[in-house]
Amino acid sequence: MAEYIEVTGIVIKAVPVGEYDKVLTILTRERGKISAFARNSRRQNSRLMAAANLFCTGTFRLYPGKNAYTVTDASINRFFEELHQDPGAAYYGMYFSEVADYYTRENNDDADMMELLYRALRALTREEFTRPLVRAVFECKAMAVNGEFPGVPGDMAVSDTCGYAVDFIARCPLNKTFSFTLTEEALNELILVSKRCKEKIWNHVFRSEAFLDL
Q1: Domain shared by 95 and 60, yes or no
Q2: CATH number at residue 15
Q3: Which one of 17, 18, 35, 203 has the lowest number of neighbouring Cβ atoms within 10 Å?
Q4: What is the pLDDT averaged over residues 12-40?
Q5: From CA 76, how far away is CA 188, in angstroms rounded?
Q6: Residue 2 above 80 pLDDT?
Q7: Which of these, 76, 176, 58, 169, lies nearest to 123 by C-alpha position?
Q8: Whether residue 195 has pLDDT greater than 60
Q9: Where are the strands (E) in the chain, listed by range?
């Protein structure tokens, strides 16, 4: 008989199914990206009601099934209510979650991508960081975590400040990723660096990206 397991993770997708259930996509430290049913989580008295939502971060107790897991309990340490209460910030969080979904697989070692996503969501709640800065840094670091970030394109000239920022993003530990701000000029350069790198590396359309900065 299969045993229960516990994982630490972030809900990166929550899709209603049937009358009362949801299917969650959880990016976990231990097992990469997994799918899990949160049964009856849409009932008002469900103990999973609060935990079965996008961005929820914590420990999930799962029962392994043939094709998916079932969530039996959860201990959430961060709900990111700030993002749910701010539609603009929520779209950025959705976009970051989509990027994480694009990059991760079940049973992969995706702990770094999970930590990056968590730190990006936290950065969205901090007043000192603008959303365009968080986005550009997240995109560059996501490519770096996956070993794909080429840095400043060879045919592009940027200021020393931007060049230093790009090198810092590529090399810094994850806990330092969102630890700086930039002037408007340097930020615009960083945004262009990220855009050029994405066009070269990412062959994918992210639906939530269309709603950013509207």
Answers
A1: no
A2: 2.40.50.140
A3: 203
A4: 96
A5: 36
A6: no
A7: 176
A8: yes
A9: 5-17, 21-28, 32-38, 57-64, 69-78
CA–centroid distance for 213 within its chain: 18
Q: Same domain for 114 and 198?
A: yes
Runs of H (alpha helix) within the chain = 81-84, 87-103, 111-124, 131-145, 160-171, 184-201
With tokens 């060879």, the residue in question is 154
User: CB within 8 A of 92, min separation 6: which ones?
Assistant: 83, 124, 131, 134, 135, 212
Reduce the DSSP state of residue 189 to 3 states and report it: helix
Number of domains present in the structure of the chain? 2
Domain match, 28 and 56 both: yes
Q: Are 43 and 109 found together in one domain? A: no
Q: Which conformational region is residue 191 in: left (phi greater than 0), alpha (psi within -120 to 50 degrees), or beta?
A: alpha
Range of the domain at 61: 5-79
Mean local confidence (pLDDT), 182-202: 96
The tens digit of pLDDT for each residue in 143-167 reads 999 999 999 999 999 999 999 999 9
Domain end among 28, 61, 79: 79
The CATH number of whichever domain residue 100 belongs to comes to 1.20.1440.120
Same domain? For 110 and 185 the reply is yes
Q: Say which amino acid occupies 121.
A: L
Give pLDDT tens digits for 34-51.
Answer: 999 999 999 989 999 999
Identify the domain boundary among 27, 60, 79: 79
pTM for the predicted model, two decimal places: 0.95
Query: So what's the pLDDT on residue 107?
Result: 85
